Queue: 4 jobs
Job 1
Amino acid sequence: MADRRQVLRIGAAAAAAPALAGTVAAPALAGSSSSTKKLVVGHRGASGYRPEHTLASYELAARLGADYMEPDLVITKDGVLVCRHEPEIGGTTDVASKPEFAARKKTVLLDGISVTGWFTEDFTLAELKTLRATERIPAIRQRNTLYDGRFQVPTFQEVLDLRKRLSKELDREIGVFPETKHPTYFQRLGLPLEGPLVRTLRRNGLDRRGAKVFVQSFEAANLRELADKHRVEVPLVFLTGAAGGPFNDPRSYADYLTPAGLKELSQFVDGLGPEKGQIIPRNADATLGTPTALVKNAHQAGLKVIPYTFRAENSFLPAELRVGTDPAAYGKAIDEQVTFLRTGIDGLFTDNPDVGVLARTLI
């Protein structure tokens, strides 16, 4: 793991900038370093400005300065990796308006939860390409609905082709940060994600030390398989939630994040992607509380920390950083990201990459 962890050493020192006026003060944890460039990951692309998981969203993320584009990966009936947040596509495409697919609506147990809709494993790639993406949260991101019906569901290969083109055009290497979505669910369907993911990375020359790629998952077993069976060379990131645990895993996320759990994780992963409340929890009144020891403990175990998800709308911000009462209006998102970056995290996932790029200059 030591060799793969070298990939995570993040480059040159960033110039110090004046503190942002009005930024919420949060104590930095031991071991934090504002001199190291923090990673800005375009969460589902620039999903604050375009429907998520579309080539338009990924491209805008890169053009706004994101270091990485983040595609969530699911799989089609004919074994092609495509980019959707979930296997269920009724909430992010126009499939419900297509009478030819009406009979494919069904109810499944998705990681133990009953979900009704249309699922990628019931569609060939050719069929998915007849659909068009729609905004997932139109009540909050009404402007994004301007683009409903404009963009296809992209394949992972198309994202890698876009990465290559934009890296050349923008004269900087754009990274990819793919997530395997519900890998146990797909394994049980006979459509495992791991093999197609590794083959695609290798076919594109991206499963190697030094490639600008991270692979992430909420399931520890999935990451163990990628490390032990597939012997991937790129760094792996374990995603965690504030409650519960990985599907079909007797251990909770809280158990994995103890000092002993972090030490164990460091044997097969290189970083953590915690929910941001695990870095700075919120008080009962929805204001930001006191930072936890997670960043310090993870760094002591040799793990990088890149939390999710930072968004600009009041709906997603702590109470003291909201502006007005409109849940869809922008609040003080820059202040929030600066506050979190000062805890020593190594980067962040954001729907608004331009905000993240600016915030990291202000720490």
Job 2
Amino acid sequence: MESRIWIVGCGDIGLRIAQRLQREGEEPTGVVRSPQSAERLRAAGIAAHRCDLDHETPPANGTVLWLAPPPREGRTDPRIARFVAARPSVARMIYLSTSGVYGDCDGAWIDEDAPMRPKTARAERRVDAERVLAAWVDDAGIDLRVLRVPGIYGPGRLPEARLRAGTPTIAPAQSPFTNRIHADDLAAAALAVLARGRAGRAYNIADGNPTTMADYFQRCARLLGLPEPPALPPEEARAGMSAAMWSFMEESKRLRVDRLRDEIGFRWQYPDLESGLRSCL
């Protein structure tokens, strides 16, 4: 099969990346699971390949951008393990991980050299994937670059349902720090790292202007013309949240993005929530 650019897990962010690649004269192929997702890509003029990553390995070679998440259960990522075991002919690879691999940092500013101390099974699966890939590329001589991504927002990606449901948030003074990246900036950053990143490096992909979780939900409510969520002490707020939702409240960190800015030369279209949220209506 001819070498090309493959985007594995080509959903919203993958489509944004694919369209940018097309404008640069590339012909990427998006790997998706459902016929509906494949049709969505084809309607946008993107080549599509269907693959169930839980049972199959995509025929990806050349350059691979792996955006597909691990399964929702367990503490490992068998999808990545299956891909590596197939020994694909890959030269360069971008892996989209999560800033959750750092765990809770008690609000401290951290860079990519901070230790990985995942606090949730969700983050443990990402750490497993990073380690499996690191061992593989060392053995096979593959150029791997890892993107550690926090919360993604953008048009169609705001917490409207949660705000309409009146789900509480933690009072501002006690609210954890949270990091964000606009969907368009994430797509642009992925391609910037692909073009100018260093092999074996991880990059924090955030806007560099973290705020608290309470601030984010309050801003979204005002933007959407909805009531601001109840701001409660932590234990009272926890009673109104699912376990999964609460897990995000138990981690507080502020991501440094010096490596993305200074090493890659990246410039954000939306460098903070004020500018980014305005684009979401």
Job 3
Amino acid sequence: MSLYALQRLTRPGQLRKVLVERGTEPLHLNFLSLFVALFGSYRAKVDFDLVVRQQYAFPILYAADAAKKYGYKAVTILEFGVAGGAGLLNMCRIAERTRKATGIEFRIYGFDTGTGMPEPIDYRDIPESFQAGDFPMDQDRLREALPDFAELVIGDIAETVPEFCRSLGEDAPIGFVAVDVDYYSSAKKTLDVLSAPPQLYLPIVPVYLDDIGVDGSNPWTGELLAVKEFNDAHEFRKIAPFTLLRSQRIFKNTQWIDRMFAAHIHDHAYRSSSYKGESQRLLPNEYINWHGSKQKGPTKADGDASSERQAERARSA
């Protein structure tokens, strides 16, 4: 286990969270995790939630696999709400490990005001949980720590997002968006990053909504309200919980699963009725050659023979 992972366990509530999530899982899976941690591949460690910030590891690997499927060599991932930068630096580390595992390159952008949170607008920003000035940033130190493939975008999201979208190219589409801006008003501006031309995205973009877990969060406040309004305003762009994700995960009690959504780019060329895959797919039918399941019906020859027997019996009578 890395020093960083040990440091995270010492944070208030973190050890209890791990005990609740892991301690309620089957014992054999926890023992198997030890083997995977020591000898498993990077992909196996993502599957077993052994990478710090599983909520980033899963969608980044998902984006890389999707990019490879559709023939891209690079993908863009975004974090909104950088604060001290621990999440952004961890995102960079995960992206580097994913690059080594998949061959896909990453471009990472972290969006933040750089000065902490602004004033809340009203109850929709859940001011009982957040306030102005929370989560300031040391921009100089963070910039020095970032790798070459990552950069900060500082300023009001309402201004930086449209400018950023105009600068994007089709060679590295957006493949993952992490939203950790706390307020409804900030999340509403953030989700505009999903309103650009469809070729600037992968067909399905994982979206992590970090702050829907606070007590005051509901469909009428915070990030969930921002998602509802985004869906209402866009005919061909919809954000919804990631389909059947819990049933696909080995460990099912972890909180991040409930916060993982997906932006569906319904007007994407790869989701058009004219799109054709690499080859036609066929479903095998292992029962078609299973002779024990065959029950032959009467044939024409059987019918003719039966008629002749009936006629012979009639003549004999």
Job 4
Amino acid sequence: MQERIKSLLQEVEEFSATDKQGIETFRLRYVSRRGIIGDLFEELKQIPAEEKKVVGKILNELKQAAEAKLTILNEQLDSGPSQTIDIDLTLPGIPNTTGNLHPLALTRYRIIEIFERLGFNVADGPEIEDDWHNFSALNFPENHPAREMQDTFFIEKKGTTGTQDILLRTHTSNVQIRLMKKQKPPIRAIMPGRVYRNEAISARAHCFFHQVEGLYVDKNVSFADLKQTLFHFAKEMYGKDIKLRLRPSFFPFTEPSAEIDVTCLICKGEGCVVCKRSGWVEIAGAGMVHPNVLKNCGIDPREYTGFAFGMGIERVTQLRYQVNDLRLYSENDIRFLRQFHTSDIA
């Protein structure tokens, strides 16, 4: 066994390597626990006790020599000349390219631009909200389905009298409440932002999406003002040939309420999968602000009236660019995103 150790010691001293693969081969053969030296330590347990002291000494010397050799090989590789890269220096350089905004950002900026021309400001608020600003102040009854876990992402449910549930906002209406609490009428603002709902992901819906809501509170605001505002928006966004219709509906925070539809730009009103063969696509919900909402925010409904509306930016973008699947907006596929240009804002 002593002769084997001396032979291995000579191998270690004479070993050379010029790349990482060679060094790894040396490590596996000599230094690793399952290498030759590791096997010799196992054999050391079987030799007579009178030889073990001598053999153990030279075996430790072999182990130390192998570890020192591995260190030297690594240092030589690190300090050696850098590897040359096979590259053709005569090739033309890669030109700088101008990026583009996300289609949802393009649509958001366009919506803001249209409403700013009508005198609307832009307001923002928190995405993590309490129950009062998201539900109670908006006239939602305690047993409303939106308050259930299957419809809303609750972060913390207190369940104790006098405390508030914490949740991811389901609409940007919470910004309307905060705005009316801190500002006296007249109020004219839009609230774009991200919202969250516990929904199955499909071509028509997602668990998160983007909304823009609008609010106008002043003396003598009427439903006619709401209708003309939305009609002007549809013309500016989709062109002068777009048609608009209002369908009676119900929302806890508006009375009377309406669903806003426009002619489907994908099938030109003839009927397709996106419009469910009806030729119309819903883009917004709207109505006159409920008196209870005004009262909750400290505004006298006998003196002031107002209208509010809300629309999904994804849906507006879907019609604007004729995109048939909402999931494309969040998949980050560069082949899809590079089709949109910053010039589309105008």
